[in-house]
Each structure stands twice: as structure tokens, then as C-alpha cells.
Amino acid sequence: MGERLNGIQEVRGSSPLGSTIYQLKMQKEISVAPMVGKTDRHFRSLARILSPSILLYTEMIHVNSIIYGNPDTILGFNEEELPVALQIATPSRKNLAPAVEKIKNFKYSEININCGCPSKAAQKGEYGIVLLNKPKTVAEIVSTLKENFPYTTISVKTRIGLGEKASLAKVVNFIETAARAGAEKFILHSRTAILGLNTKKNRKIPPLQYHMVYKIKEIFPNLKIVLNGGVKSVEEIRNHLLHVDGVMIGRAIYQNPWFLTELETLYNPNFVPPTPHQFLNRAISYIERESGNVHHSKIVKHMYNFFKNRRGSKKWRKTLNSVTKTDFDSHLLQDTLDYILS
Ligand SMILES: Cc1cc2nc3c(=O)[nH]c(=O)nc-3n(C[C@H](O)[C@H](O)[C@H](O)COP(=O)(O)O)c2cc1C
Fold first, then answer.
1. Per-residue confidence at 43, pLDDT binned at 50, 70, 90?
2. Which residue intervals of the chain are DSSP H helices?
3. Is 117 one of the annotated active-site residues of the chain?
4. Atom 10 of ligand 1 has which residue's CA nearest to it?
5. What domains, with CATH codes, occur in the chain?
6. What is the pLDDT of residue 269?
7. pLDDT tens digit string along 16-40?
8. Is the full-model pTM beyond 0.70?
């Protein structure tokens, strides 16, 4: 094992930014997970109001969408969203070259490769979790990205096994191969993926095995290892950070975006969260600013959970429903918030 780690250290030593990169990698990191249908640039812009520092991931974007889609729609984001990591889905490096040229026009903080999605589409398209069985293919994707983005973190998101049982040996070999090719950071959903289950069940049924992720960090002390899966509180995060370099959170943030303000205090203990009215005013400014580019319903659809589970939340939901169907009326939103807070 010692030899293995030395190998990775050598790769590290020859990185273009040398020790600076190494130091940055050792910082603890909290991030919002990539979530298709959720973490588009509008949700990210709203999330950024509640946390100036947290790392935000895009939804998974397939390499063909990057090649054939409108680059501004597929890849565009607002500078305020930074730091933002782009997550791509690709079965190999074959089609990567034209995609890379498009990605170069956008200044993403990190590029992440999806090696964790268990959906039928991913299995058919040979991307996502099936790549856990193809470490060499992943290494080729990583090295192509690293050649084109030498100063950008290249990361990989995967799970702790494929099938019922976690497989430390498989994951270790996978990580080692990808790290030798230039991947510096690994995000591990602390569950296996069971291919017979649908994606939703695959986020629930395979048990969480955090000790496996801790173990992987022990094996790779020089790589940045980020734990993901089922994390719901600052206390849990603090505990995980005793063992790993970062924690990624998905559903707990989308379901309760105000959780972001608690996470921000981990970066910045003096952070003063916006009041609900301040949040809403900034959200409204964003909607108005974007009105030339996008129908406001595309932004409003992410606002349901911002005032959920409190008195008046039913009225908030109703207001959002009606605002979606009419011309944008910011007063309706403000009046409803007044009602909720009264
Ligand atoms: C609606 C939804 C969409 C998701 N889409 C992606 C995706 O595009 N890429 C990805 O790597 N994981 C995706 N995931 C998985 C999450 O990134 C994360 O690994 C998983 O939800 C476990 O973290 P959590 O328990 O904090 O939610 C998705 C999860 C959800 C709920």
C-alpha cells in the first residue's frame, strides 16, 4: 500500500501549482450535491444568497448536450454563483474533445465526472456507476480533462460499490487509477448502487456505510476525500470532518434551503444570514434581472421549499402556483411573506 501512496504523491508533486494546490486540497469543504432537475443555475443563484462560500455543483450534464446544445443554456452561469463545479456524464473520452472546447469558454471552479448514477439511461449509455468497473476508461477521461484544464480541479463522484456489498478493493483500485491520471478529489456517496433498483430507491435502500469512506481516506491521505449521503445536520458534518476532507449534501439542502445559512457559519462563524425579507428581495431582483432570458416560472419553481413547514406555508405554495401562471407580480410574493411572518 505504501508504494501505491508514493505513486500518488509523485503525481501530486509534479502538479503545475505544486504545493499551493496541495494546501488548498487540504482545506475542509462543504458542497451542494449535483441534482438533476434541481441544481440548475437558478437554484444555485438562490442558494448563493443564503451561503456565499459553499461549493455548488451543476446538474449532471451529458457530453452530447454540451456538444450539440446551446452552450449558454447548457453551460452558462452567473459569476455570483462561483465557486461552481461542472458535473459531466460521459462513457469515454471519445467525444470529449469538442465538449472540452465548449467548456473552456466558461470558468468552472472544478470539473467532476459522474461515476455514480445508477439509472437505466446511465447503464444504457455506459456512464455513471457502470464506470466503477472501468477504471482505465475513467483514467482516460481524467487525463483528457487534466490536459485541457491543468489548473482546474478534476474530481470524480462515485459510490462505495456496485451490487449488494461494498467493495473496498474495487473502489481503492478505481481511485488509485483515476488519481494517477490526475484526479485530485473523490466524492463518495456512502452507499453501493444496486442496478435492479430505480434511482430513488438507490438513494435509500443500500445502507449508508460511512466507515468505508473514512477507511478510504485513511488509505489515501493525500487525496481529497468528500463524504456524501444522508447528511442532515451541522453536528453530523462536524463529526464527518474529523475523518474526511469534505461533506457534500443534496436533499437536506433542497428540502430546506435555509440549512445553507448554518453551513455558511462553518466557513465563516461571523456570518449574518439574510432575513427572510432580504432573501426575498434579492430573489425578486434576480427574477427581474433574468426576465429577458427566461420565464419566471423556471426560477419560481425552486422557491417552494424556502418557506415550507411554517405557519402560512400553504399560502406560500398557493401564491407561487398562481405567480407561475400569470405575469410576474413581486408584490404578491412580498404580501404572502408578510402574512407568513405576521
Ligand atoms: C433529484 C436528485 C437528482 C440527482 N441528480 C444527480 C446528478 O445529476 N448527479 C449525481 O452525481 N448525483 C445526483 N443525485 C445524487 C446526489 O448528488 C447525492 O449523491 C444523493 O442524493 C445522496 O446525497 P444526499 O443524501 O445528501 O441527498 C441526485 C439526487 C437527487 C435527489
1. very high
2. 2-13, 18-25, 41-50, 63-68, 71-75, 96-103, 120-125, 135-148, 168-180, 210-219, 234-240, 251-255, 259-267, 276-290, 297-300, 313-325, 330-341
3. yes
4. 34
5. 2-267 (3.20.20.70), 276-341 (1.20.120)
6. 87
7. 333 333 333 347 999 999 999 999 9
8. yes
Q: Which helix (H) or strand (E) holds 195?
A: none
> Closest Cα to atom 2, ligand 1: which residue?
35
Give per-residue pLDDT as tens, 69-119. Answer: 999 999 999 999 999 999 999 999 998 999 999 999 999 999 999 999 999
Which residues line ligand 1 at a C-beta cut-off of 6 Å? 33-38, 59-60, 87, 114, 116-117, 157, 189, 203, 228-231, 249-252
Give the integer Cα–Cα distance in Å for 318 and 140: 50
Which listed residue (117, 237, 287, 303) is catalytic? 117
Pocket test for ligand 1, best of 31, 32, 35 (most atoms within 8 A of CB): 35
39 CA → ligand 1 middle, Å: 10
